[in-house]
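2024-03-11 09:14:02 DEBUG pipeline.ingest accepted 1 chain
2024-03-11 09:14:02 DEBUG pipeline.ingest length=303
2024-03-11 09:14:03 DEBUG pipeline.predict start
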Amino acid sequence: MQKQIGWVAAVLIVVACSADPVNRSTAPGDFLETHEESESATKTPAFVVVSERRLDADGAGQGKDAYDLIRAFGGKRSIEAPDLYSINHPGAAHIYEDSDPEVGPHFVFVIHRDDDIDRDRRDKSDRQRNEIKTYSSSEDAVKGFEGETLVFRWKFKIDHGMTVSRRFTHLFQLKAVGGDDSQPILTISGSKRRGEDGIEVRHSSPPERQVLQRSDWSEIEGEWLTAYCRATFSDTGSLRVIVKRLRDDAVIFDIDAGDLDLWRGTTAGHFVRPKWGIYRSILDRDNLRPDEEVVRFANFSIS
């Protein structure tokens, strides 16, 4: 289903991830085979898990508020939702909880073409944002430092009818903090090309940008997807991205790339952080519906 644009297979590495929602230390050689990378008959346990952090919804009207759950995961300033800024779109919740039979409790992210802007940036009227992230004050376990390998897992669903433009609609980013951080290192994005809506995995190594793989929008619209991203943060890093449809296990993306530039930092304090949500250009406005657009997310983890 995916359309291969670049990259050949690199060395397959299997990473163990704990199911526990807390930090998990492992003894040397401790190893668990992951579902996402079980396609190879030969397993090489290259890593042990030293920590895992999870973010799970607990159900609408149950337990903690959605924003409290997110802040417990990423920190006090981990949410960039329009309702948190008085000059943006206050009074309308942009992230809330819901539940369905497929994944159970999950988070709902919404965006409004004509009402939302980018945080409190009136000087940037060309884009809008509703995202969660880790940042400088987040704990080190949810940040990627030079030479480290992190595994990101989550589920997401793009509701029926959502449109994308010829610009960008980022749903996931790996973004450098420090060094040349003007462009995200990696994104999963919606984009219209040659008149057709699609979803793609993009990599940038300034000044170069490329699409690693692309799939048709019809393959994923209205479907829950499981996402797995393993990245080793180095100038010659490795990347494993697997996205599947939950309903039938159909593979949307399968990327295994080595010798890939996944680092932008220049000091020991620089790092790479994940961002999830909806961050899109509104310059190509005519290709975006005025309707409220919805993307659902569930079961985040960083190992």
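2024-03-11 09:14:41 DEBUG pipeline.report The chain is about 5% helix and 40% strand.
2024-03-11 09:14:41 DEBUG pipeline.predict end
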